[in-house]
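USER: If only I could read backbone structure tokens as easily as an amino acid sequence. It would mean a lot if you studied the pair and described how this chain folds. Here is the record:
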Amino acid sequence: MVVTLSSPKWIVRLGKALLSVLLLVVLADLVDPVSLGHATGLDIDRLGSSRLRRHIYSIDQIPEQHIFRSNPGMDSSVLPEEPDPSSYGQDAAESPREHLTLVTNPSSSSPFSVYAHMDPYNGTMYHISTSIHPSKHRSDTAFRVSSIWNIEQDEYDEWIGRDVQARITPNSDLLRFTCVFTNAPGNLTEEVNATSTNQARNEYLLVECVLPSWIKDGLTTEQPQDIRTAGLNSLKMGTLAIKTWFDFTDCVPKASTPILDNTLRNQLCQAHTEVRVGSIIPGPSHLISPSDWSAPSPQNGLSICVSPVRLRPMAENPEEVDLRKLVQWRVWHMYQGVTQVHWYSRDPIFRTWIDSLNRILGLGDTWLDAPVLSEQFPASSREYADQAIYAADCLSRYGITDKYQAYIDFDEFLLVSHDPHRNATLNRLEQLDEDIGSLGADHTYYGGEHVASLLDERYRSDSFPPNAWTRWNTLEKLQGFRRQKSVHWTSATRMIWVHSSARLGEGYRRIEDTYVAMDNSTRLEILHNRKSRPEELTFDHDIDSQQIEAWKDTWAELAGILSSAELQQLHKLKLGL
């Protein structure tokens, strides 16, 4: 006997009614996607970012006013595929830059791979990232392997300089590296000697190798794309091992300095060279398998690399962090033509904020966990000592897709003061000669009277917009102050420092946009909007009234974007304590 259970008729009718209502809601959402802020003043057709245009619909309500609308079919956690060349705007060339590079994924733990060793001394090696890319020398068309390493020595008291940057061990000059390439079938293996370059401030090493001879016809930028793709795939599907060892064969003692204590190094040199036993000591080997290479990403024009973000709870509410200024900072740079910001953060919860920011503004900003690299850092400098290493990681990891990278802090704003139009910073960079590898820009400070009457009352503050003032000044002529930051061309930059300088490839040069060297209409500035300003600032220079008038529409447009209810939800981040 079969027993059939049935529901009363009123339950069936109620269920059908609820399904009908749900269907209507879904259809309405498909026709009219969720609004992300009204009256922003954004003209979608004028947006410089191809990614932003692809993920946002615009619907006219009244002339010159639009609604930001999310693409309902877009998963904000997944970056889009390679854009079609026709969708590119000012943030890239007329056709997308080819994927000519490979770069490793972050490690699952650090995000760097950590190797501890006890011989010849107690220490740790950190593999930061490895990439395969065209040479950074302008006249060299061959591809190279570049790998970033940090070398730490236990109980090395003098490895922090001025309580800011990390200091690699004095034994690093005794380290040797090779790249061992093996093809996918496993029948070809070649070991290539590497060169290692100290960054010059003793913060990390750059290890470089040429490619193996079994890559058909080599691998150069002059070859057809199909040959380059085949060569890169051949490398990607095989393995690459980066081997290390210490070589004391010709070790020469060195005198200690106020920065570097060479006592242990000299003891090791004497022990190994006199006995001639164990002069070659194997070190860690880092293996890169096919799954360790990252997937291709969309190409960008201008990006920003930031130092690791530290979330500081509000004094009045320890469970929340005030991120309003960070929202303003990101919107400002979106307007300046910055396609992506590469965020590094000490706290993994920050990723939820980045995901929401990407969804609301249609961006593709990246996020990487950035814990303090070493417990050896003194407490006074622990939050800052490894920032150069993370900056180097940003160049290696994202330089494969970025054309330009700026290295600035959250109280610094890219600005072309006489150009209030969209993408002004990007346009300035695109005007420069092809042999320019780095552009330095002076810090500027704005003061005098704040032009608050031109702004929405909710955004009348002394911090935003950062240039809404009547006077300005620079520290160019004053000694003892850091006065510049830089934008670097990734195809020309081999190594970087935290604030301004870079080691460029041969054939590239650096120029500076200074107050006296450049015409004011095109000069790039790094507006330093710090809360406590140097007392030496006198704000001698008046801002022309016509310049203030020219910026009115831009300030109003920025205020319109920031007024969206969705963005205001990002002003606070709950820590979940």
Summary: The CA atoms of residues 355 and 367 lie 9 Å apart. Residues 300-574 form a domain with the Spore Coat Polysaccharide Biosynthesis Protein SpsA; Chain A fold (CATH 3.90.550). The first strand starts at residue 56 and ends at 57. The chain has two domains: 102-292, 300-574.
